[in-house]
């Protein structure tokens, strides 16, 4: 496993995160009432000071009323303005020392403002969901909001019993008292703050595939009226999981869940062990299957193998885009090279002002970054050939499982598998804005396109998830 690195302030979001310490565990106890959209919570953070004594430090938290803050069990001075909770312990915390922080807060959660609209907590017509990439996590809990600071999570959510709560991790318990239910989840794998997913809604819960045969437990939480369409659209996800395990290595988490909100979403969004789709991504004709592949691939590239800061976002999106092309290639659709050719024609007709290795905040979610990221991965495959390329890919995901990476780390990794120097390749694709020529097709290892649909989703789900029904009117939301 790759160790965590100590990163400074993110150059794209310098107000987010504090590199003077790191958190290794969050324990969140939340109470949410959907009608008034009222959230009350207590967070207990277990953290370690960095190389210098901490006279003060900060967490990111949106516009809530903060009741109290404790450091190592003692009340401490704090201020809360402009999304920052600044904390000054009674005594400086020694360098390298372990400490705890407890924060209580209450209020009406809402998305935080960003260049892409509101991000984070989203109140739905009947329920809520969280889609935090890149800086939305403070919209619902206090955190050290930087990708490189990965921690385990224990999440408890109390809400009216009619609602299903889905969060990142494994469901430990579900306890009903009177008209409320408490759902408790544990995510033991190191997780970035923006990848902590949460959805609260009226869902029917089903299993995907056969857990005895498919290995990774896969569940889905879907409005009842969308189940017939969903059953066709996601029928091949277990086969997709098997293929990606073959290509990328073992699935990096204990389970995988998908949620379909009863609302329209601009784009699906990945979280750790969880992906969120909109009702508009379920059409009954597998019209959005490439997005199913894209979000699943993020569990390896982005979630397990996490970027040190947002300059390196192409390492998330380029690999997820290329996974779409690999799924197509291995299931009898267009080959990856045919997809790459189409993407190259598209990009050649667009402005040549994007530098992939450092796109800047304005362009970090530009569609060209996704396409050029996929093309860069394809160029590496063309240079290495299939045998070396797929060894490189598996060992990249394996060596940095649950770790933190950078673009320079990736280029150094690729160089170890190349028969010829790859400096020129990366200079052209990563550091020059002009689009390089498309390389010749790679020497392919013959494969048989034999992926077949798996067993349709089945009911009932695993213990702890009762089938629930409900519907809500859809509406659009902005998403990164």
Task: Please explain how this structure is put together.
By secondary structure, the protein is of the alpha+beta class. It is 23% helix and 27% strand. The chain has 10 helices and 22 strands. The chain has helices at 211-214, 227-233, 237-248, 289-297, 314-330, 336-348, 367-384, 386-399, 407-415, 423-430, and strands spanning 21-33, 38-49, 57-60, 65-71, 74-75, 77-81, 84-88, 98-107, 120-124, 127-131, 151-160, 164-167, 170-177, 180-191, 198-201, 204-207, 218-222, 256-260, 269-271, 274-277, 306-307, 404-405. The chain has an 8-stranded mixed sheet, with no helix packed on it. The protein has a 5-stranded mixed sheet with strand order 16-17-18-20-19, with no helix packed on it. Helix 5 crosses helix 6, helix 5 (314-330) packs across helix 7 and helix 7 (367-384) packs across helix 8. The two termini are 30 Å apart. Mean pLDDT is 91; it is low at 1-7 and 459-480.
What are its keywords?
five-stranded mixed beta sheet, alpha+beta, 22 strands, disordered C terminus, disordered N terminus, 480 residues
Spell out the blueprint of helices and strands:
Blueprint: E1 21-33, E2 38-49, E3 57-60, E4 65-71, E5 74-75, E6 77-81, E7 84-88, E8 98-107, E9 120-124, E10 127-131, E11 151-160, E12 164-167, E13 170-177, E14 180-191, E15 198-201, E16 204-207, H1 211-214, E17 218-222, H2 227-233, H3 237-248, E18 256-260, E19 269-271, E20 274-277, H4 289-297, E21 306-307, H5 314-330, H6 336-348, H7 367-384, H8 386-399, E22 404-405, H9 407-415, H10 423-430
Parallel strand pairs: 1-11, 17-18, 18-20, 21-22
Antiparallel strand pairs: 1-2, 2-8, 3-7, 4-5, 4-8, 6-7, 9-10, 10-15, 11-14, 12-15, 13-14, 16-17, 19-20
